[in-house]
Design a protein that fits this description.
It is a single chain. This protein is mostly helical. The protein has two domains: 13-272, MetI-like (MetI-like fold); 281-306. It is 75% helix and 0% strand. It has helices at 2-7, 9-26, 28-31, 63-99, 101-116, 119-130, 134-148, 150-161, 164-171, 176-187, 189-213, 224-228, 231-234, 241-268, 277-305. Helix 4 packs antiparallel against helix 5 (101-116), helix 4 (63-99) packs parallel to helix 14 and helix 9 (164-171) packs antiparallel against helix 10. The longest helix is centred in the N-terminal third of the chain and has 37 residues, at 63-99. The termini are far apart.
Length: 306
């Protein structure tokens, strides 16, 4: 936490946005002044006022309430989808990287085949088959994201499995399943945490995109992407607040989650530690000392040769 405050102020800002999003999603029933489906046609398309702080939509529903309940949908989809993403990524990438050989080759060729296809085409095709709904969006985005992101986890496993303690566990007779659980998983946990935080923002944005296109979460369930589509586009000139507030909420949320994830990656990913933050300051003095020693040795050698 101290390193986050001192070295990554933008990451701290992103963490604050994430906390606000979580708080809003959990306590949406208490924070929202109306139910997300409550309709009063007498205030249809009314501008922001004391009664409706963010205005009302074409059906007379309070925009603030729908934004707040939309945060709950984003929290559920983002967190659960990211958890599935990491689990699937570890199962695919961990098995591929640890066992290697033909299994690694086959799995990686399948992953590369999936990566060759545009992600949007894959999402739209699967959603057209399984149908709309929160559960469908979570499963589709989580599983597909895990498969596509498994190469990162595979790389981390390849860097761990050659260590002495892994080889010792294998020689002692431990099963591969136990080695993956007890030795591989704890040592790649920073990579998994970073992958989780980055997946949250990606899944929230993708859910909004699918809902905007009509393949995600069906009305009347409030989704920020769905609020930007349909009636939002139809009445955007007459009532611009119908698309303004969902767009701002989506932008701030994805920005905060991504900045927070990038900060955690910079602080925790072993591949990015060299020369950054506290590690860079720790390495600076030994490096200068080594350079001074080398310069002294070269000077002594020149004197001897002279």
């Amino acid at each position: 936490m101290k390193r986050l405050v001192k070295e990554k102020p933008l990451g701290l800002l992103g963490g604050g946005i994430v906390l606000v999003l979580l708080f809003t999603g959990v306590f949406a029933d208490l924070l929202a002044p109306y139910g997300y489906a409550y309709s009063d046609l007498s205030i249809r398309l009314s501008a922001p006022s004391a009664q409706n702080l963010l205005g009302a939509d074409n059906l007379g529903r309070d925009m603030l309430s729908r934004i707040i309940y939309g945060a709950r949908i984003s929290v559920v989809v983002g967190l659960v989808g990211a958890a599935i993403d990491v689990i699937v990524g570890f199962l695919v990438g961990g098995v591929s990287g640890y066992f290697g050989g033909k299994s690694d080759t086959i799995i990686q060729r399948l992953v590369e085949a999936v990566q060759c296809l545009p992600s949007l085409v894959i999402y739209l095709t699967i959603m057209a088959v399984v149908g709309q709904g929160v559960e469908s969006v979570i499963l589709v985005l989580g599983i597909s994201g895990g498969v596509l992101g498994s190469r990162t986890i595979r790389s981390a496993v390849l860097g761990i499995k050659g260590n002495v303690y892994v080889e010792s566990a294998h020689i002692s007779g431990m099963r591969s399943r136990q080695i993956l659980w007890m030795h591989i998983l704890p040592n790649i946990m920073p990579v998994l945490i970073v992958e989780f935080t980055l997946a949250v923002g990606r899944i929230i944005m993708t859910e909004a995109m699918l809902s905007f296109l009509g393949f995600g979460i069906a009305p009347p369930t409030p989704s920020w992407g769905g609020m930007l589509s349909g009636a939002g586009r139809q009445y955007m000139l007459q009532a611009p607040w119908m698309v303004l507030w969902p767009g701002i909420a989506l932008t701030i949320t994805v920005y905060g989650v991504n900045v927070f994830g990038d900060a955690l990656r910079d602080l925790w990913d072993p591949r990015l530690r060299g020369g950054l933050g506290r590690y860079g300051r720790k390495l600076k003095q030994p490096l200068m000392a080594a350079q001074e020693v080398m310069a002294g040795q070269m000077a002594a050698q020149e004197v001897t040769e002279g």
